[in-house]
Design a protein that fits this description.
single chain; about 180 residues; alpha+beta; OB fold (Dihydrolipoamide Acetyltransferase, E2P); five-stranded antiparallel sheet; three-stranded antiparallel sheet; 5 helices; 12 strands; about 20% helix; about 35% strand
């Protein structure tokens, strides 16, 4: 396996069902590469369909997270997180109701606990919950809470592909080109 950039590292959680011991391991490999190796290993050791049911390779993202607040932790529904904002080695978690929680860990580490299908990085300093986007205009999005965020150059194409834009002249021109019109 080949090493990758730190942004493509996988965190593997290993739980011993007998003892309940939990271990987290950061690996310098992409998720798809790691899953392929695990599946190939299962085949190599002739793990049958019956035994394979016991081996679960799943992605699980919690519906709630506990965020450090004061001397304790506040329970936060993931769907209520509007966006994350980087502030050096800190991350501001902005909730839909306007509340802001500060945590002393980088934004990229907070992102590891959130579903990449729902949360997308749109700027070096911002990750947004796609469900909280109200409008998308050029290189700018506006969230339902009114916050406007500029989409960084390197993220524009990826974000553009996340949306289905009905009535977009550019999409009509692209469709016509594909149809030979």
């Amino acid at each position: 396996m080949k090493e990758t950039e730190s942004s493509e590292r996988c965190k593997v959680i290993i739980v011993n069902e007998g003892s309940g011991e939990v271990m987290a391991v950061n690996l310098p490999y992409r998720q798809d590469t790691l899953l392929k190796v695990l599946r190939d290993s299962l085949k190599h050791y002739n793990i049958t369909a019956d035994t394979a049911n016991e081996v679960q390779l799943t992605e699980k993202y919690s519906e709630h997270v506990f965020v450090r607040k004061g001397y304790g932790h506040k329970k936060v529904a993931v769907r209520d997180i509007a966006y994350l904002e980087a502030d050096r080695n800190y991350c501001r978690i902005h909730l839909f109701g306007g509340e802001c929680l500060n945590v002393s860990m980088p934004m990229v580490e907070v992102y590891e606990y959130l579903s990449p299908d729902v949360f997308k990085r749109i700027h070096r300093s911002f990750i947004v919950n796609l469900e909280h986007i109200d409008t998308y205009i050029g290189n700018m999005i506006t969230l339902k809470c009114g916050k406007e965020i500029t989409i960084g150059r390197e993220y524009r194409e990826t974000i553009r592909n996340e949306f289905v834009c009905i009535g977009s002249r550019k999409r009509i021109r692209m469709k016509n080109k594909l149809l030979g019109g």
